[in-house]
């Protein structure tokens, strides 16, 4: 099913919660809406799943306008859309009955078979007779997912499906989401503030901030080329700096204070002294003990100020040392973060206080205003 | 003291021997009050569902009005019903005054704000979550309403019982419209009031004990329901 929102706005008591939302859900793929708490993800989901109405703007389902549908058509449509809310509500009955609920509403003729299958998939067959009110939060999420999944929806909306979950439940739910997308061709729309998840799953990523979609694109685009400092901070690019565009020896560069970084000439920044933001992914920075002779346009000497082990990969923070040939430097701290493996760290003998060269290509520097 | 003990003694005798008069008064009390609660529920339940599940202009005003109506003294309700159904009143033609139906009407009117208000509170609390979940799982409007009622059933039960407890203990209003006619409209409370005034404590104490037992039973049932619910 194709779902498209056009200029959707939503206000509660005069307070605008969503503003001018334009988005098209990619069919049969995982779509991720990322944004901090309170960005409007849940409200957006309610509108896209017909649980709430937009104050302004339109939502199209397979080309037909949601507000022009009759109640019967709406019900039919809603039955093709599954939703698992952030804190799912369990009916005051057994796990089995909770999962059977939607099937019974539809008068399905294989309720028992489908419920048993659902229980097996979420690995909770053993507690099928337990009351829905006595479950742990991980179990509630799993039951809620099974409850939506047994209805075989064409589109499944998951609002923070893995927030506050135990590792086992997370693994089961992740597996299920991937299975539904790959094997059953279900379109999945997932709200999350877990960036790793969005990056790993998301075919299309929407960055939501204060009720506005400030960037949308492939996961790769959003993570590598965030278009605002908010998106950059939110997707944790690692290196985010503010700088000024300058022209030095005919080359466009960015003055970050201590160092000047060469960038791919950008026609949008012809004016010099334009204040811009720069992002650089930690994995795009190469560390070396000697100066490198390579095609990379940027290579600087830096002092290691911190080394942090983040579960197998090492985050190295460096403070650039201004070139002697560059007298006009400011002493603003602009620490760069680079990612290396544990083995590299050991082989190079990296320690805090050491000086190393860090090198990156001009094309890896993402610039935006 | 001697007086009280002997009245108590004879009263217990009346209850244990299932005295005909005591029995008929208790039976009438229950049938009048249960019928009244039944009719008020027919009105209160849909109204509270509507108020809890549907947003419409004036919703809040109605809720506030119902909450205020809980404070109206029963005697005032009795007076209004009396004026309506008395021979010269607009409904005088129905000849309801001094019949059990008059008591049922008055008690139902008294119970409506209580049941509506309590049901509304409970439906408002669970309603939005249940509604959203049911609708998101594909419930039609009716299926959703049925699910909401099912989920709130123990709290709704509490509202009905509270309404019943209020009306079965009502005296002045019931006497005004029922007339306390022996064998026709004499219920527990009106009988106790009359017998006490007559100085005939035997029957009064016997009925008082029954009324107390009813109060205890209602309480026990309430606690059981609340314990079993969420």
Can you give me a brief rundown of this structure?
Chain A is of the alpha+beta class. Chain A has 10 helices and 20 strands.
Structure description:
The complex is a heterodimer of chains A (369) and B (230). In chain A, 25% of the residues lie in helices and 34% in strands. By secondary structure, chain A is of the alpha+beta class. In chain A, helix 4 crosses helix 5 (137-149) and helix 5 (137-149) runs parallel beside helix 6. Chain B has helices at residues 2-16, 20-53, 59-69, 74-85, 100-136, 141-151, 153-168, 172-178, 188-198, 201-228. Chain B is globular and about 65 Å long. The A-B interface holds A 49, 51, 71, 75, 78-79, 82-83, 85, 88-89, 91-92, 101-102, 105-106, 133, 147-148, 151 and B 129-130, 132-141, 143, 147, 151, 229-230.
Write the layout of secondary structure elements.
The complex is a heterodimer of chains A (369) and B (230).
Chain A: E1 3-12, E2 15-24, E3 30-34, H1 41-48, E4 56-61, E5 64-65, H2 71-78, E6 81-84, H3 95-105, H4 111-121, H5 137-149, E7 155-159, H6 167-182, E8 187-192, H7 195-201, E9 204-209, E10 212-218, H8 219-224, H9 229-234, E11 239-248, E12 251-255, E13 260-262, E14 275-280, E15 286-288, E16 298-310, E17 313-320, E18 336-341, H10 342-348, E19 355-360, E20 366-368
Parallel strand pairs in A: 3-8, 3-9, 6-7, 7-8
Antiparallel strand pairs in A: 1-2, 1-4, 4-5, 9-10, 11-12, 11-14, 12-13, 14-20, 15-19, 16-17, 16-19, 17-18
Helix pairs in contact in A: 3-4, 3-5, 4-5, 5-6
Chain B: H1 2-16, H2 20-53, H3 59-69, H4 74-85, H5 100-136, H6 141-151, H7 153-168, H8 172-178, H9 188-198, H10 201-228
The share of residues in helices of chain A is 25-40%
Number of DSSP strands of chain B?
Answer: 0
CATH topology of the largest domain in chain A: Rossmann fold
Q: Which shape of chain A, going by the Cα principal axes? A: elongated
| pLDDT averaged over residues of chain B | 91
Q: Beta-strand level of the residues of chain B, as a percent range?
A: under 5%
- Oligomer state equals heterodimer
Biggest beta sheet summary of chain B:
none
The number of helical runs of chain A is 10
Distance between the termini of chain A: 36 Å
Structural class of chain A: alpha+beta
Q: Helical region count of chain B? A: 10
Give me the side-by-side strand order of the main sheet of chain A. Answer: 6-7-8-3-9-10
Secondary structure: helix percent of chain B: over 70%
Q: Give the uncertain stretches of chain B in residue-range form.
A: none
Largest pleated sheet of chain A: 6 strands, mixed
